């Protein structure tokens, strides 16, 4: 038995095959999207493709509506990420530091948006904006995305705070540091990687969100909405696949970076250090 409590024996063939089957089930459709981004057939998805070409990448590159939707998606994801990082960190700090009546209920309310189906969140936000007389705009999309992005940052930050030592904060305050200095020099360095990882995950979630965006965007079109609309045009399916490949790449990179940022922390926590 290893010191970290995990068995040193290799996994059996049954477990390996089950894991391989799960990986293929989740990722094989992505491989087909990549394959059909190169197909020469612009109407049907026959397998194997009748031929391969890169012309659809040039077509997508020259489409102005693609760039407009992409720029809107990037701006929304960046603003949602920034809002989530600020509000999620403040919420995590408050929930970790203070005890008060109704704390569990507030925690549930913070986590609820990520558990609710997107269509429920979208309908609720649309009703709230209508009751408030708020016209649909770029900021209504940002607010809609921030509702579930905050949860991602909150979970990362509060998990890191729970693994940190309260004695460090108390020592900082005892040595004369004020609340801002304690946050800047003690708390922020300890949660920096978790905060950055949460922000990256929030960006990835916001970038490819379609359901909430549909209810809060009005006439604006983000990249996922553009893809949904283009799927109704059979001759544009290869272009849509090209854009889908780009979306996969943009969302995969932040998720991979977030994994590597938090991997060492998880390993250290698991080893009892």
Helix content: over 70%
Say what the CATH topology is: MetI-like fold
Number of helices: 11
* Proportion in β-strands: under 5%
Domain tally = 1
Per DSSP E runs of 2 or more residues, the count of β-strands stands at: 0
End-to-end distance: 18 Å
Cα radius of gyration in angstroms: 23 Å
CATH superfamily caption: MetI-like
CATH C-level class: Mainly Alpha
Helix and strand composition category: mainly alpha
Give your account of this protein's structure.
The protein is an all-alpha fold. The chain has one domain: MetI-like (MetI-like fold). The protein has eleven helices and no strands. The protein has helices spanning 13-36, 55-62, 64-97, 103-115, 118-131, 138-163, 166-174, 179-207, 211-216, 223-230, 237-270. Helix 4 crosses helix 6 (138-163) and helix 6 crosses helix 8.
